[in-house]
């Protein structure tokens, strides 16, 4: 009886890990009720399989498909199929690795837990990197500048911490100092963490930022700094004419 309880426990743990990582990768929340239902059915199936394997053997894949699909039932069919696909990828990978360990005569439950832990760590690392890249992509905007009958296009980065304006509250956009565009207008005082310094501001003929499919004209000053990208601007430039 103790052996059956261990089998059920580890089977449920693996099932939950696969559900968790699938939802995490797709970026959706799991349905608790559906997850509980799938766990109960999974536990009943494991017990029946251990007691009467010869009767359930030919239906194994049908049960696996049914049990693994229940937690991901939703109206969005494509999302559901993606979740189930990720679940199966994990299932096949873990099954293959476990089989190798078993054949090598090194298999035990501690190694299985280690495999599950490594899967979770890998998924969390991938998810964080994926979300960071999405965040960076969402904060990138195309900038169009015209000056002295010439057009310049840049990839601008939205920095939510950049709230710099002049005394008239006109926002300041930073461009990479590798290329100076615009005519000098004035200097303003800027207080940094360490010192207070003067910053030169420039004006261009026209400044546009692309939001969706439209270029929207903005009234800004240009300043120059050593950036790792083309341009940087604050949140006041997003949403309508400023």
Description:
This protein has helices spanning 2-26, 32-51, 53-56, 60-69, 77-103, 109-138, and strands at 140-147, 150-158, 172-176, 183-191, 196-203, 206-211, 214-217, 221-225, 231-233. The protein starts with a helix and ends in a 9-residue tail after the last strand. The protein has 242 residues and is an alpha+beta fold.
Strand proportion = 15-25%
Strand-pairing-aware structural class? alpha+beta
Name the helicity range: 40-55%
Envelope shape: elongated
Main beta-sheet annotation = 7 strands, mixed
Order of helices and strands: HHHHHHEEEEEEEEE
- How far the N terminus sits from the C terminus, by CA atoms, comes to 72 Å
Give the rounded overall mean pLDDT.
78
DSSP E strands, number: 9
Major sheet strand order? 7-6-1-2-9-3-8
**Weakly predicted, low-confidence segments:** 97-107
How many DSSP H or I helices?
Answer: 6
Q: What gyration radius follows from the Cα positions, in whole Å?
A: 29 Å
Helices, strands, pairings?
Blueprint: H1 2-26, H2 32-51, H3 53-56, H4 60-69, H5 77-103, H6 109-138, E1 140-147, E2 150-158, E3 172-176, E4 183-191, E5 196-203, E6 206-211, E7 214-217, E8 221-225, E9 231-233
Parallel strand pairs: 2-9, 3-8
Antiparallel strand pairs: 1-2, 1-6, 3-9, 4-5, 6-7
What keywords describe this structure?
alpha+beta, 7-stranded mixed beta sheet, 242 residues, two-stranded antiparallel ribbon
């Amino acid at each position: 009886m103790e052996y059956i309880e261990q089998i059920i426990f580890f089977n449920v743990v693996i099932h939950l890990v696969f559900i968790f990582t699938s939802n995490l990768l797709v970026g959706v929340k799991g349905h608790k009720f559906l997850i509980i239902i799938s766990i109960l059915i999974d536990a009943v199936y494991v017990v029946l399989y251990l007691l009467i394997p010869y009767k359930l053997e030919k239906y194994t894949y049908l049960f696996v498909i049914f049990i693994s699909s229940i937690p991901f039932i939703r109206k969005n069919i494509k999302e559901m199929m993606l979740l189930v696909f990720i679940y199966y990828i994990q299932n096949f990978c873990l099954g293959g690795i476990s089989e190798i360990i078993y054949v090598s005569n090194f298999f035990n439950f501690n190694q299985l837990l280690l495999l599950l832990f490594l899967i979770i760590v890998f998924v969390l690392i991938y998810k964080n990197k994926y979300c960071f890249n999405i965040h960076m992509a969402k904060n990138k905007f195309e900038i169009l500048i015209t000056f002295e009958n010439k057009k310049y296009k840049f990839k601008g980065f939205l920095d939510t911490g950049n709230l710099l304006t002049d005394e008239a509250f006109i926002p300041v956009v930073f461009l990479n100092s590798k290329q100076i565009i615009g005519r000098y207008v004035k200097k303003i005082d800027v207080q940094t963490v360490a010192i207070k310094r003067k910053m030169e501001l420039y004006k261009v003929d026209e400044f546009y930022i692309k939001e969706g499919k439209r270029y929207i004209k903005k009234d800004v000053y240009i300043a120059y700094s050593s950036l790792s990208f083309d341009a940087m601007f604050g949140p006041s430039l997003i949403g309508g004419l400023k």
